[in-house]
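> forwarded from #structure-qc
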């Protein structure tokens, strides 16, 4: 098993920064261009395999899951997915888990993430596609970084996968959502599709899964199963969660339940307090690569708890107990989850009532100068985790299906369930706590 190297992550960071300083952007762009030119002609026959080609520009973890799943529903007879990303990013490994998908990768950069050269790289490949490949192209979503390039816009003829998916889903679920305020939202449709008509979730290759499970059994032979904890840390993004200290009581409760705790996401295990660090399992403890560790941890776990980022989308495709913590913004619905939302706090330290948040502040990110977002407190996390663990896995789907919350009718029937603590506040049995 691999041993941990003290401060190794800091050493790697210094090396990468030095390379960025010493490595001119144009040199890298030339290398990437030559590589992409070779990849284009290598995969030319695959690019012509299907009529529809979906373009995904360095989508995050969630986009790589949800957009690919949406494309499978829009184009059931097959499609080609072209992903622009840095080599061996998570996109490359995720695509290997989907059966029967024609995925082709092009490089964006090696070391220097220069926005101008990245756009030029996409433009060059786009022009090759337009001139040589006679197919119908779709943009997975509106990438603002590419709006300066009319060639890219023309290639896709303003065809967005998300709009085609919404049109398809509306024909299937429109009556079910008739009159709901959010019946035009793609996340609601995605929730309905996955919850009621889910496709088989992706699986890692058999040898990778076997190796993952074997190593986990060696480390935690007495565990009844394992829970994966996804911690998001992306600067000032409101979908990020708290610190390890905020999650201590929640983690200890999971351990008392007899489960091992695996950690994925953006917060390194090394930054946890010493006693927590010794019980949490990451890719270094297990001795396998980070990308495959995280994919396996997310798709094979028995229970899942995670912040409101892309890491929730693989567990969303599986029917198992899962809790989204620090959920934000209001109206975000990921199927099959118990949701514990962040709170909006006013200048006097009072939480804005949840019913008002759901009905008046949907998809609100900026809450103004007199209000702030507050992460879930240790008490809230503990209560929601207890609810999660109290439901037998075999009963989870029934538990989630009973999702009606008075005051929030728009989510009925979408596989959404508000945690009991916050549902009680809307019903009127509890009052929101002061900060």
């Amino acid at each position: 098993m691999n041993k941990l190297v003290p401060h190794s992550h800091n050493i790697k960071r210094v090396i990468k920064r030095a390379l960025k300083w010493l490595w001119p952007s144009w040199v890298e762009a030339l290398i990437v261009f030559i590589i992409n030119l070779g990849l284009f002609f290598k995969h030319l026959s695959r690019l012509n395999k299907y009529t529809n080609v979906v373009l995904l520009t360095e989508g995050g973890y969630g986009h790589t899951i949800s957009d690919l799943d949406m494309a499978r529903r829009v184009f059931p007879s097959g499609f080609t997915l072209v992903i622009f990303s840095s080599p061996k990013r998570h996109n490359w490994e995720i695509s290997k888990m989907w059966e029967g998908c024609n995925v082709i990768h092009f490089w964006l950069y090696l070391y220097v993430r220069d926005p101008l050269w990245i756009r030029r790289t996409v433009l060059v490949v786009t022009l090759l596609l337009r001139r040589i490949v006679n197919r119908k192209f779709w943009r997975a979503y509106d990438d603002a970084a590419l709006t300066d390039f009319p060639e890219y816009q023309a290639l896709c003829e303003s065809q967005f996968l998300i709009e085609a998916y919404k049109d398809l889903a509306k024909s299937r679920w429109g009556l079910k959502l008739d009159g709901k305020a959010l019946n035009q939202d793609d996340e609601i449709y995605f929730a309905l599709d996955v919850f009621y008509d889910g496709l088989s979730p992706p699986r890692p290759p058999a040898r990778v899964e076997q190796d993952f499970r074997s190593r986990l059994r060696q480390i935690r032979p007495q565990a009844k199963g394992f829970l994966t904890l996804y911690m998001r840390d992306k600067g000032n993004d409101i979908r990020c969660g708290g610190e390890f200290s905020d999650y201590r009581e929640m983690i200890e409760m999971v351990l008392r339940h007899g489960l091992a705790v695996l950690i994925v996401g953006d917060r390194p295990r090394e930054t946890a307090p010493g006693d927590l660090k010794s019980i949490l399992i990451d890719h270094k403890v297990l001795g396998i690569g980070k990308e495959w560790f995280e994919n396996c941890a997310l798709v094979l776990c028995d229970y899942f708890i995670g912040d409101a980022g892309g890491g929730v989308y693989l567990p969303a495709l599986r029917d198992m107990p899962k809790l989204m913590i620090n959920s934000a913004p209001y109206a975000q619905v990921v199927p099959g989850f118990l949701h514990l939302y962040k709170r909006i706090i006013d200048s006097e330290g009072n939480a804005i009532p949840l019913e008002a948040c759901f009905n008046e502040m949907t998809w609100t990110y900026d809450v103004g100068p007199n209000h702030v977002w507050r992460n879930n407190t240790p008490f809230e996390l503990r209560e929601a985790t207890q609810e999660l663990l109290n439901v037998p896995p075999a009963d989870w789907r029934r538990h989630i299906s009973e999702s009606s919350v008075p005051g929030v009718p728009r989510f009925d029937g979408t596989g959404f369930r508000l945690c009991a603590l916050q549902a009680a506040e809307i019903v009127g049995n509890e009052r929101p706590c002061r900060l």
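QC bot note: The chain has two domains: 8-172, 206-427. The domain at 8-172 is CATH 3.40.50 (Rossmann fold).
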